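Hi R.,

Here's the chain you asked about this morning:
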Amino acid sequence: MTKLLGAVAAIAVMTTASSASAATIFTPINQSMLDLFGTATFGATITTTGLFSHSFAFKTTGFNDASSSVVTIELKNGKKNINFTSVKLDGFAFTHTGFDPGAETWDLTTALLAPGTHHINLAGKVVTSGSGTNAASYSGTLNIAAVPEPATWALMIGGFGGAGMMLRSRRRLAVAAV
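And the predicted structure, written out as tokens:
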């Protein structure tokens, strides 16, 4: 009986160890860095093959223009590779710009974001062509910049108009004085 319990315990430990090593390790978007510098990185390392769907959340205050890029590199000799099927920021689709066997790149040049919580959603498949045991990974960069509100634009345009009127009236006064 003791040998049977020992064998069951050993199998349980091995099963737990293998499932613990089969994990996805995330690098979430650092909100503090995004707020302070307007840029942050994100990504994941995936140790299993098959389909995946990941989401990275961040918040903005005010209206912002966003751009982003996601990159993964195919490993040769039977190692794992990520093939994305979709990369989106709140429904704004990224464009597939770089292809295997080099760096697979997906870019988003611009997206106007309202204040609130936003998500970058990535879907794809981790594949392998051999017995390689290396993990597959991807990384991304997110950039945001505040967009002036309409009232700010109106004030700025009004200022330019006022400066133009002042210059024009000065010319008239100079001509009249001569």
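The mean pLDDT is 81.

Let me know if you need anything else.
M.
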